Structures are given as structure tokens and as C-alpha cells.
């Protein structure tokens, strides 16, 4: 079963979000074998939680690693947990625009699993790192730093997302082979860090310009277990088509 996640980023006002979910609910196929996840802005979590079809799961796009306190503008795991099963951590936009270091992302992963949330841990190389053939090195550094002190049992709660930074929002997706190689490498790292029994069933999503045209080829790859979709998740039609085409 694939996991298809929508990352709406900083898009959709309240009314736009409600219109989407009402239309989307009607198109959900009860036999659909995929897990469907929507990560809207925080302002929509409460209402979408109330309106959504039961097959849709909810996720937050970010979270702080403290339960409460003087952290203006942040949101806590206790607040996220009221509506969400998942939370995205370490997205490249958080890393690059908001300067989040691996140490914070590590604290967020630990905080999420300790509160029973499933973190979607994003890792990926920049264009420059890819040109210098440093993809594996970057993936290893990010993965190991972000999973520091995360036990084997806790790792089972984590979803991984390979998101090459050069592919995000650019229309340039990784080729199925490039994505497969990165996913296989991530799984081999997880096997070394934990065990094969733990690593094999872990979900590794691909993200970066996923669209209705490239879904089928990407999902055929052995180690691609689903997608984190940005731009193409903003329209009901394209997101639904991706879900339908992403049969594992
Ligand atoms: P994109 O974004 O599909 O618009 O490239 C993916 C993501 O950043 O999660």
C-alpha cells in the first residue's frame, strides 16, 4: 500500500481549503488501496478534521519540539496531536529558508514519536551537492543526525521522504532510476543502523515535482513507497489522478 501525501505548503485560505475537501471527499473511492494524507496549513486543520472523509489522514507541515511555553509563532506536539496522525519535519524549505539545523530536526523527530505522532522526515541534496556527486554523503549525514537517539522501535513510527532540493517546485523530477538509487541507499543505511526486519517495511516517499505524468514510472521502483506532493496536490483533479495512478 502506497502513502500519498499532499503538502499544501503556504497555500489555501480557509474557504479554498474547505472547497477542496468537499470536492475531494466526493471523489474518494472506498476501495482505494492507498493511504491518503493531507498536510494543510495550521489554520485549516480543525475544519478539515471535522469535514474530511474517514479515509483521509491529516498531517501538520511543521512543529516545535516543546509542549508549551514562550515560543511565539510556534505550534506544539500537543496541539498537532489533537488533529493529526503525521507531521512533516525537516522539509528543505524549513532547512534552507528558516535555517533549521539537523539538531532541531532530530529533536522534532524524537518529540513526535514520544507523542505518538508519525514524523515524515525529509532529506535530500541540493543541485550543487548533486553536481559534486555528494548525494549519498548528504543523505547519510542528514539521516544519521536526524535519527540520533531514536530507538529501533521508535524508528518504526517514522516515514522517510527523499526530496532532492533541485527537484522541489522546479518541474525537474529525479528520474525513476535516480530516485530508486537514493531510496535503496536510504534503506541500506537504515538496515545498517537498525536491522533488515525494521528497515524493509519502512515507508520511503519520493517528493519533488511529482505530477500526473511521472507517477506511474516512479511508483514502479522497488523502494519507492509513495509520494510527498506539493504543487500537484493543490488541485483535486491532479491529486486524485496521482492517487489513482500510484498503485503499488
Ligand atoms: P513539489 O513539492 O511537488 O511542488 O515539487 C514537493 C515538496 O516540497 O514536498
Structural class: alpha/beta
Strand order of the largest sheet: 1-2-3-4-5-6-7-8
Described by the principal axes of the CA atoms, the overall outline is globular
Query: What is the overall pLDDT average?
Result: 97
Strand content: 5-15%
Q: Main β-sheet: number of strands, strand sense, barrel status?
A: 8 strands, parallel, barrel
Strand runs, count? 8
Helix content: 40-55%
What does the radius of gyration come to? Answer: 17 Å
Annotation field: number of helices: 12
Q: How far apart lie the N and C ends?
A: 6 Å
Q: How would you describe this structure to a colleague?
A:
The protein is an alpha/beta fold. The protein is 43% helix and 15% strand. It has twelve helices and eight strands. It has an eight-stranded parallel beta barrel with strand order 1-2-3-4-5-6-7-8, surrounded by five helices. Helix 1 packs parallel to helix 2 and helix 7 crosses helix 9. The chain is globular, with a radius of gyration of 17 Å. The structure holds 2-phosphoglycolic acid.
List the helices and strands and how they pair.
Elements lengths: L2 E5 L6 H14 L7 E5 L2 H10 L4 E5 L16 H5 L4 E4 L2 H6 L4 H13 L3 E6 L3 H5 L3 H12 L5 H4 L3 E4 L13 H18 L2 H4 L4 E4 L7 H5 L6 E4 L6 H10 L3
Parallel strand pairs: 1-2, 1-8, 2-3, 3-4, 4-5, 5-6, 6-7, 7-8
Helix pairs in contact: 1-2, 7-9
This protein binds 2-phosphoglycolic acid.
2-phosphoglycolic acid (PGA) binds next to strand 8.
Sum up the structure in keywords:
single chain; 248 residues; 12 helices; 8 strands; 43% helix; binds 2-phosphoglycolic acid
Amino acid at each position: 500500500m502506497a502513502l500519498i501525501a499532499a503538502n499544501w505548503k503556504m497555500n489555501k485560505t480557509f474557504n479554498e481549503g474547505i472547497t477542496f475537501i468537499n470536492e475531494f471527499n466526493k471523489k474518494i473511492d472506498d476501495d482505494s488501496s492507498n493511504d491518503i494524507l493531507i498536510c494543510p496549513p495550521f489554520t485549516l486543520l480543525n475544519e478539515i478534521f471535522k469535514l474530511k472523509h474517514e479515509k483521509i489522514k491529516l498531517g501538520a507541515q511543521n512543529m516545535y519540539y516543546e509542549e508549551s511555553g514562550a515560543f511565539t509563532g510556534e505550534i506544539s506536539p500537543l496541539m498537532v496531536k489533537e488533529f493529526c496522525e503525521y507531521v512533516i519535519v525537516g522539509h528543505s524549505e524549513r532547512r534552507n529558508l528558516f535555517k533549521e539545523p539537523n539538531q532541531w530536526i532530530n529533536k522534532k523527530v524524537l518529540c513526535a514519536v514520544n507523542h505518538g505522532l508519525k514524523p515524515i522526515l525529509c532529506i535530500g541534496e541540493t543541485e550543487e551537492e548533486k553536481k559534486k556527486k555528494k548525494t549519498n554523503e548528504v543523505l547519510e549525514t542528514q539521516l544519521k543526525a536526524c535519527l540520533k537517539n531514536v530507538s529501533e522501535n521508535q524508528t518504526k513510527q517514522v516515514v522517510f521522504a527523499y526530496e532532492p532540493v533541485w527537484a522541489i517546485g522546479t518541474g525537474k523530477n529525479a528520474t525513476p532510476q535516480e530516485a530508486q538509487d537514493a531510496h535503496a541507499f536510504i534503506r541500506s543505511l537504515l538496515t545498517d543502523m537498525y536491522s533488515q526486519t525494521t528497515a524493509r517495511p519502512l515507508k520511503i516517499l519520493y517528493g519533488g515535482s511529482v505530477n500526473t505524468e511521472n507517477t506511474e514510472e516512479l511508483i514502479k521502483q522497488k523502494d519507492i513507497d509513495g509520494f510527498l506532493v506539493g504543487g500537484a496536490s493543490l488541485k483535486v483533479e491532479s491529486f486524485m489522478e496521482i492517487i489513482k495512478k500510484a498503485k503499488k
